[in-house]
Write a structure and sequence with these properties.
Porin, 0% helix
């Protein structure tokens, strides 16, 4: 995940209790997810729930989310569109860490290797922890 910028901008001087942004600037990360759900309409629509692990250059976190994915065609190569909405909690510089909403909107390409195995590559926008990131994901669907 490539950090882009903080979505909340401060126009005032923070007080002495302020400890900084949830994620530091230029703090890239990794995101490992597992989603379990159902596929409908000849394996072109997927809906599920997932759990994930995040690491932003040493800051660990977990995510819990709902996941919806749509593949418009049934061909070997097809575009895909994905929306993820949920919650994440990272253990950063704040006591007990911070939890925020998570929203991800991505598009990509899906390759059907066999009838039961797909591989995909996707990227888009991720909003979490008052930050905007660009996720670049590769994964398997079986």
């Amino acid at each position: 995940m490539n950090f882009r910028y903080n979505t909340v901008q401060y126009d005032m001087d923070p007080n002495s209790d302020w400890k900084g942004d949830y994620l530091n600037k230029e703090q890239n990360g990794i995101d490992l997810n597992m989603v379990n759900g159902i596929s409908l309409f000849e394996k072109r629509f997927f809906a599920g729930v997932g759990i994930g692990y995040q690491n932003f250059e040493g800051i660990n976190g977990i995510t819990v989310f709902g996941d919806i994915e749509y593949l418009p065609f049934r061909s070997r190569f097809t575009p895909l569109f994905n929306v993820k909405v949920g919650y994440d909690h990272i253990w950063n510089q704040y006591e007990g860490g911070t939890g925020t909403a998570l929203g991800e909107f991505v598009a990509g390409i899906n390759y059907r290797m066999t009838e039961k195995l797909d591989i995909f590559l996707k990227s888009g926008m991720l909003f979490t922890q008052q930050s905007f990131l660009i996720p670049i994901k590769i994964g398997l669907r079986f």
